[in-house]
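Here is one record:
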Amino acid sequence: MDYSLKVREIHIQANQIRFVVDGEFEYLGPLSKPKVILYFENGEEDRRIPLVIKKIEQDEEEQTVIFHSDYTYLLDQLFWKSRNCGNDIRMYFHVLYGAYYEEYIPIKIEPELFEQDSLVYQCSIKENFLVFTHQPDWKKKLEQFEHVHSGWKIKKTLNKIYHWLSFVLALCLLPWFLFDGLLATVGIIDYAEGKEQAKKKSLLGKYVVHVNARLHYLSQHKISLRNARQEVVRQITNAKKRRFIRLFNRMKDSMPLEPRRISFISVRRNELSGNFAFVYEKIKDDKDLDIQMYLSTKDLYHMTNAEMKRFALLCATSKVIVLDEYTPYVHYLTTREETKIVQLWHACGAFKTFGFTRLGKPKGSPQKTAMHRSYDYVTVSTKNVRICHSEGFGIPTANVVPTGIPRSDVFFDEKYKEQTRARLYEQYPMLQGKKVILFAPTFRGNVKEDAYYPMERFQVGEFMDAVGEEYFLLIKHHPFVQTSHPVPEEYQDRVLDLSAETELNDLLFITDLIITDYSSLVFEASLLDIPMLFYTFDLKKYISERDFYFDFQSFVPGHFFYTQKKLEQAIVEQDFAQEKVEAFKKRFFDDFDGRSTERVVALLYKAMGE
């Protein structure tokens, strides 16, 4: 791989370091973009964090990719468990581009501008890495610096005050905005969002979007007019409830830690299922364990006082806390040092970027957030993705353990597979004798509240006409998507929307072909050698906004298409590139023995003994 990487400038002030970096790589195609990872280690923890690329240009004629980065990192926010240890910090560059990956790259760091105040850190430049050494009395000096330079706190406070005052003013001006919207709708004044956007909306849609634009311009809030009051109430209520949870948690000082208590906490499910169910079945007969459950799909706004208290007290008194998804309430709390938090991450492998990997991207996690950083252990399917989860969660690589994923054990259980097939065929007899296509795309949007799938991009009627009578289509949208996929009446005897089914894995046992886009379903499907096609009409946009841990072109175990017609053609011609599935499977799973649950249980007992 031919490339050059140049650190142009380094600026260090107190606990902050700003890098200005330019890079030039060879061109690998429009979908491939170089990724540079900053690797820090302090003798106790390591930390991977992406170099935030501000500008990138691809020149197909010159066969080059040029990028520019200018970003400031907080050195005291790199580590979580050992951030006050005072050890030297060493920093290296790692590079990932296409299928190429190299650690500790031999880059000569000779910045054109190198400035440091040496207040907290003294930085020295070595051949291919940086060394940050804490200055004597650095904590005291940092406090003095923050006191002298406390203007940023005042600025932040004033900004908040201005933000809320502008929001209140916007609400006061709401009657005028409503009148203004009427004028725009009838064409007397220009539409706030532009004429092209106006053409795509109904009359009511134009009106609502115009008024929202006026509100957003003044207050930086973009809200539904019908929910203005509810939005304010929700924000105030959530702030109060966060304080209540912290208050309940402080009661831990007067309550003993239960050394044999293991608590399963989920805000993703209200019943025992998924990884939790497999682990619980293995440990439920151990009479020495005190097993507790907090299973709920309620968000903070809808939690009762009793639920908040139970949640906080379980976190305060448990020796081991087991999670299965991002659980924000955990990060509001300060758990005991003896308490171990184990994240049974629900997805196999590593696909879409998440957490701190999205630093600098729209709605990416800011470096200061505590989100995910309190995990003592995270279980994954293979050692090959440890660095991805370490980076995404902001935790040491050593905290990521390749045990395998408990719920994947069913793929090695022949009895379970036969029973599941029999149950599904009994429940849906129309599937027997058909070739079953499972359409299972992921959602668009950022969070559960704004999740959707553009249904118009997959026309069921056209698809069923193209593929023929031998196929039956199952539709399984992500649980966050609340809208049903429209199915023309004449095709309802060959199409089923099973989005309400709780266990997607079971559907794989009766599936002959999968159509997806960016869903982690591909990992489980590979264990059954199911052919896969990828309908990725918005791939370039998805890469720019969300991105992947690996190069998409070389990653996916099948062809990908930008149009539905090309997708249909591949099915008619039986062109699935199934030879890619075997290599994919071996890359993202270490063990094929159906004993992942046993390894996870062993890890929990280990955590309990620490």
User: Anything to note?
Assistant: The mean pLDDT is 87. The radius of gyration is 27 Å. DSSP finds 18 helices and 23 strands in the chain. The first helix runs from residue 138 to 148.
